[in-house]
# Entry
Amino acid sequence: MPNAPPQHDSRQETPHDEDSNVVPPTYSRDQQLLEYVDHCLRKVDDVFADLTDDRAEEPVAASHGARHRGAPVGEMLVIGLVHLQLHAAQIRTFLATRGVPWAGE
# Structure
């Protein structure tokens, strides 16, 4: 299965993403993290390969919950990018406060 998430301990209670794939709450090995990053990259490639103006205007699936129900797919993609940027800034701050140099510094 090309878009299967990495293997994890199914005995642990974990959240689900929109495709009902279990997202491991923690990573114990670098390989497991890299496999999950590859899984996420494939999902991004799949979404953008099929994205058209018409698809971007369609409402998101009801599985996204009441908060986002009816929002256009394109809007949700932009919200996702902003959310990603927020977490990248948080990681950057975390690393900077521990003396880890950032690329280009």
About this structure: The chain has three helices and no strands. The two ends are 41 Å apart (CA to CA). The helical segments are 30-49, 53-57, 73-96. Residues 73-96 form the longest helix (24 residues).
